[in-house]
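Onboarding guide, step 5: your first structure request.
Type a short instruction followed by the sequence, for example:

Predict the 3D structure of this protein.
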Amino acid sequence: MMGYELTRRHFVDLLHAYHPSSYEAFGADDARFSTPMYHAMKCRDRLHVALKSGLRRLPFEKQTIVDLGPFPGSLLRLLRRLDYTHAAQLCGAGLMVSDEFVQFMQRDVQADIHAVNLDPAGGQFQSKGYPEKVPLPDNSVQLVFALEIIEHLTSPFHLLSEAYRVLGSGGHVVLTTPNVTRIGNVFKLLIGRTPNDRLAPPGYNNPDDEWRPHAREYAMHELAEMLCQAGFDIAESRFFLGEDTQQCRQSVRQHGINGAKWPFYLVPHLRGSLLIVGRKP
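The system replies with structure tokens like these:
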């Protein structure tokens, strides 16, 4: 048996019954939001698109799922709450992995979380001695997620090679990332602003802060070329609206800008987010 169809209605019901952990909640006094907010709700469009795409390719009889960049745990916690993946082996590998977070995820959803440096080319965390390989055997995994992580890496090829190594034949990797050709970036260029204003400021180098600013954003053809170079076949690619500014406090000017963007979303490559799925032959 192959695949499960996660409908939007089922996903919304899942979120309504979801209790965020302390790692996911932004807090009632967070001035960015008009209502109390947590990570899974803020990122609901992205999470639904990625989960729907991955789960329809996941077999029923054997399920080992890896989340590359698991903090704050939303993806793995949602997976454990689905009947289809209730018994799956769940694993996460990446940064921002404290002992307390590891223990919480094991206790809460029986997920094994590991501190792994997936961007050794960057050199920022070499002094911490983190392993650079996901601690799983070759060809042992059916599904890998890498959501909103590739744009933070100095070089994405180590992450892609690790995903390829741990996946078995017929396994899939699901990536999402901001779209560098989105209409918001086009608007910035038209008024003489750089679209890279969220990237690392000059001199940013804090090895104790394991969250990294964006190092590079990508167009769809670049992601496809990199996946193919890593050995994957392209199983799916799509542009989607990953609007994570819902319930955010915004000025009248920002509301006007957001309204001006909507007609352009009819053109797929001007939408805000990319999803691409690679299949290991």
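Each response can be followed by summary notes, for example: Residues 41-279 form a domain with the Rossmann fold fold (CATH 3.40.50.150).
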